[in-house]
Specification:
By secondary structure, the protein is mainly α. The protein has nine helices and no strands. Helix 6 packs across helix 9 and helix 8 packs across helix 9. The longest helix has 13 residues. It binds heme C.
Length: 211
């Protein structure tokens, strides 16, 4: 994908020998080319990028700091990022962190949402299995993140762990300032109810994850 973007950026700039120059293109030029290609859907381009996508081209402060420090900000900066992550969290009005684990399993399996052809405000999935082992009965999972098998059992099903799990899923940067996990709540990927459901998948005593 990256190569394709760089290559098309160079084509747009009228550069013929893309390979020779690929390394020489500054971030600024690349950013400009990508931004200019970002058009809302129209008659000629019905599948154009969704309007809200353009805002995602701008790195937030958190991303800037994490990119610049290669995910290793100094302690003070890390604490600041974690504090800001915590401040972004919205908590369930009923004070309960555990929803329906069965629905949580569906959300964890579902990789839909925020893709080119998905509706902007349609419900998205969490795609958790892309990075984590969760229910041991599911054999297809990624290993970018740690295994979450028996997660609730390992955390002794405490209310404090329910809360910490909800917070981690809502904004993964609460615990690790430059986390590689998506910020499901803060970035509007999952709703509060959906986050409660995946929290239940990990933390409920009757969830297959803890059998
Ligand atoms: C793109 C990969 C990715 C996706 C998708 C992802 N995670 Fe993670 N997750 C990670 C990584 C990497 C970590 C390790 C710590 C960190 O970087 O934050 C992690 C850590 C966690 C932890 C803390 C584990 C611990 O050590 O206590 C929980 C809980 C968790 N993820 C739940 C989820 C849930 C639930 C979903 C789906 C809604 C999800 N993750 C989706 C990458 C991902």
């Amino acid at each position: 994908m990256k190569k394709i973007i760089i290559a098309s950026a160079l084509v747009a700039l009228g550069v013929s020998s893309s390979l020779a120059l690929a390394e020489g293109v500054s971030d600024k030029v690349l950013q400009k080319v990508i931004s200019s290609s970002w058009k809302n859907p129209n008659k000629d381009n019905p599948e154009g990028a969704k309007p809200d996508w353009a805002s995602r081209l701008n790195q937030g402060d958190l991303q800037k700091i994490c990119s610049k420090t290669r995910n290793q900000p100094d302690k003070k900066t890390a604490a600041k990022l974690e504090k800001a992550a915590k401040a972004s969290i919205k908590y369930p009005e009923d004070g309960k962190f555990l929803g329906d684990w069965k629905n949580g399993e569906k959300i964890a399996q579902n990789g839909k949402g925020l893709r080119y052809n998905d509706k902007v405000d349609g419900p998205a999935g969490g795609n958790c299995y892309a990075c984590h082992q969760i229910d041991k009965a599911e054999l297809a999972y990624g290993t970018i993140g740690p295994s979450l098998a028996e997660y609730g059992k390992l955390h002794e099903f405490t209310e404090a762990a329910n809360k910490a799990t909800y917070e981690k899923i809502y904004n993964s940067h609460v615990a690790i300032s430059c986390s590689n996990m998506p910020r499901f709540g803060t970035m509007g990927i999952l709703s509060i109810e959906q986050i409660k459901d995946v929290t239940a998948l990990l933390m409920s005593k009757d969830s297959p994850v803890n059998k």
